[in-house]
Structure formats: structure tokens, C-alpha cells
Design a protein that fits this description.
Mean pLDDT: 76
Largest sheet: 6 strands, antiparallel
Number of strands: 9
Shape: elongated
Low-confidence stretches: 1-31, 219-228
Distance between the termini: 88 Å
Strand order of the largest sheet: 1-2-3-9-4-7
Strand content: 15-25%
Number of helices: 7
Structural class: alpha+beta
Length: 232
């Protein structure tokens, strides 16, 4: 009889669990959830700073683009200001990244890329890959006014594939016209311009690295470029 009384968690004589049986782990789970949340929020600041620097922007430039004052941006990056949805939404838009990537939300196991088009200077970029490394985009360049193309240069290499329309590609003193199914790769240190060869929008698949991302998707300073200026 003494052995039965000392047993914890055994069923009583009516077949029900003993009152001494305890549900363990609930407090630990709540604590782990809190720690995970704190860790996610703490990582937002360094991620914001890295994105801003990767895009080559100063705090003043970012403040102008987002409407958030420099002091708030500085405190966000330093971790002394709690990130809120109101602050993160314009930052995600300027940096051209999904909100879940901005806050470092855990992956759900879904491999699909959520397409969020970004418009810069009249050109539409549809991201086909997650941030980091080589970037894949679908690029739509609408026809613009019949003006003299402005050739530009920047760091890196680019690869492109024509999906629809006719692409006029100017590389230095050479002018090429690419049709659907044709591809090109070139050093972007060479002065270049690309745009439609006729009145139709040209659709491209483009690949570029961090340097190309800065050249295409960073906040531009000075007068805005129109669709007729093409892509650099």
C-alpha cells in the first residue's frame, strides 16, 4: 500500500489520471516564443542598415524617399526604436523587398516567389528571385518619346533574354536589335542603353548582381528619367 501512495502520475483506482500529474513545458514554450520575437525585432535594424548601404543611400536620401525623418531612421537601424508596420512599409517599398524579407520572418517552406512589381523611372521590374546574390527580374520597357538615347555605365555584368517585342541594345558605338528568343551578355562598364525598337513594349528576363541592383533599383537623385531614356 505504501508503494501505491508514493507513485506520482499513476492512474487512481477509478482509472482517472492522478491530480499530481502536471502539464510541463507551457511556461518554457511561452518564453521561447517571446525570445524568438525579440530576436526577430532585434535583427531588423542591422538588416535595414545593410540594405541602405547596399543601395548606396545616405540617411538623408532615405529620409527624403520615405518621408521618415533621419533621427527615426538612425534609431531604427541602431535598435533603439521599435519597428512598426507604419515605418516598415515605406522602407520595404523603397528597398524593393517583400515585408517578410525585411523583418527576416521564418520561411514557411513555400518555395514560390511572391511577385511584387517595382516601378522605377517608368520601367517595371518584376522580381523573380529573393534578395541576395544574382538577381533575376522580368523587365518591361514601354515605348517613349523619340529622343536621343542616353548611354550610361555602372559596375558589373548583365545578362538578358528577350521575351516579347524587339529590343534595341546600344553598346558603345554598336547598335543591335534582338528579337524574342535572343540573349545578350555584356560588361556594364561599356556605355550602354536598351529600349524598344518600335512602338511596342519590350519584355526581358534580366540577371544582375549587387552593382546592377544599385544602378537599376536604388533611389535616383536629380531629375527623374522618363520611359524614353530606356534602361541602363
Amino acid at each position: 500500500m505504501a508503494d501505491t501512495a508514493d507513485t506520482v502520475g499513476e492512474e487512481d483506482t477509478a482509472g482517472q489520471p492522478s491530480k499530481n500529474t502536471r502539464n510541463t513545458g507551457s511556461t518554457d514554450n511561452a518564453g521561447n516564443t517571446g525570445n524568438t520575437k525579440d530576436g526577430v525585432l532585434a535583427a531588423v535594424g542591422p538588416r535595414l542598415r545593410e540594405l541602405r548601404r547596399r543601395h548606396g543611400m545616405t540617411l538623408a536620401e532615405l529620409a527624403e524617399r520615405t518621408g521618415i525623418n533621419e533621427s527615426t531612421l538612425s534609431r531604427l537601424e541602431g535598435g533603439t526604436r521599435k519597428p512598426t508596420l507604419e515605418l516598415l512599409l515605406p522602407l520595404a517599398e523603397v528597398h524593393a523587398v517583400p515585408l517578410d524579407e525585411l523583418v527576416g520572418a521564418p520561411r514557411t517552406g513555400d518555395p514560390r516567389i511572391h511577385l511584387r512589381p517595382v516601378t522605377r523611372d517608368g520601367l517595371t521590374y518584376v522580381p523573380l528571385s529573393r534578395p541576395g546574390g544574382v538577381q533575376a527580374h522580368k523587365l518591361l520597357i514601354p515605348p517613349g518619346p523619340d529622343t536621343e538615347p542616353i548611354l550610361r555605365t555602372h559596375e558589373g555584368f548583365e545578362w538578358l533574354y528577350v521575351l516579347a517585342g524587339r529590343l534595341r541594345l546600344i553598346l558603345g558605338e554598336r547598335t543591335l536589335v534582338l528579337k524574342p528568343g535572343e540573349a545578350a551578355e555584356f560588361d556594364t562598364h561599356v556605355p550602354h542603353w536598351l529600349g524598344p525598337d518600335d512602338h511596342r513594349t519590350v519584355e526581358l528576363l534580366v540577371l544582375f548582381g549587387h552593382q546592377g541592383e544599385r544602378a537599376h533599383l536604388r533611389a535616383r537623385q536629380g531629375p527623374a528619367r522618363g520611359p524614353g531614356d530606356g534602361a541602363a
